[in-house]
Here is the input.
Amino acid sequence: MTCPARSHMPRHLRLPAAGLLAAAVALPAAAQDGVVTTPFDGSFDDAAFAVETAIVGQGLVIDHVSHVGEMLARTKQAVGSDVDLFTEADVFLFCSAVTSRAVMEADPMNIAHCPYGVFVAELPGGEVLIGHKTYPEGPMQQVQDLLSAIVAEAAAF
Here is the structure.
């Protein structure tokens, strides 16, 4: 079965439409609901180092660093865009055994929120932001508290 909206879209418009959707989803954090951002007084590299240090300082292991800014820059023409969303942007992905166990014992479907991420983004005007998404009320507030503590520590670096 095909998606009704997609079946009516001409093939040559599908890739550009997908690119526009990706660009809309990837708007700077200040423009999105469900995201907490904190300005960083320094360079992108200093902010990334501060975030890495804060995560490791919590006794956590960074599983992956997603170089979202590089991917968006590399693919912008392929998706029919000329918009520079970020100068640089990385997302640090990690999990906490203690916090994850607590929130998943409360509801095993909280697995959908794991791994957790803290991002560092430099906007084209030079503003550097550190942030994370927000989580639903209830047990997932433990994750939000952990991420907020990491961001606060990194911002004070």
In short: The beta strands are 35-40, 61-66, 88-95, 116-122, 128-133. Residues 1-31 have pLDDT under 50 and may be disordered. The first helix runs from residue 4 to 7. The helical segments are 4-7, 11-25, 44-57, 68-75, 97-106, 141-155.
